[in-house]
């Protein structure tokens, strides 16, 4: 591939990533139910990453609860649960680390089988923590049926998506009816006033 073609391809990938993040950030700016926003994020990730599955879990106490899926099955959403440290997803939450397995993820010793999830038979697995203010509040997983090598760009992108989802969760939990822009300005200016 010529240098020009390579640069053109990289620019195209960067533009696609930017569009994905723009679409996700619109969920933050608009008034939408958290469940709707999470379903939207999952759909966007599947489309962008051309993966077969995207699952999003949120933390409730010491359990991760499946909250959104591109292949939602009524018996799984809200019912599939993992303890922190349990399975690949629980490991990502507990360790606060990205996990990439390009083939035979189901053979990893940390893997936990759920007979309700067809994704248990998928080959590749990419997972990132969902983070709010340096705290893990969930996990987002991307899976391919066939082996798939995850590029550094894909790993970084999923990490960024996890951070965006964290912001969505934080916004959903905040009481925006009491939002005061002047209070935000006070927070920014307080250190300058003390100095």
Major β-sheet strand ordering: 3-2-1-6-5-4
Architecture, CATH level 2? Answer: 2-Layer Sandwich
What's the number of extended β-strand segments?
6
Distance between the termini: 56 Å
CATH superfamily name?
A: GAF domain
What share of the residues does DSSP label as strand, in percent?
15-25%
Number of DSSP helical runs: 5
Main beta sheet: 6 strands, antiparallel
* Structural shape: globular
SSE pattern, N- to C-terminal: HHEEEHEEEHH
The helical percent reads 40-55%
Q: Domains counted in the coordinates: how many? A: 1
Structural class: alpha+beta
- CATH topology: the name is Beta-Lactamase
Average pLDDT, rounded to a whole number, is 85
Q: What is the level 1 CATH name?
A: Alpha Beta
Unreliable stretches covering 5 or more consecutive residues: none
Task: Tell me the Rg in angstroms.
Answer: 18 Å
Provide tags for this entry.
195 residues, alpha+beta, Beta-Lactamase, 5 helices, 45% helix, single chain, six-stranded antiparallel beta sheet, 6 strands
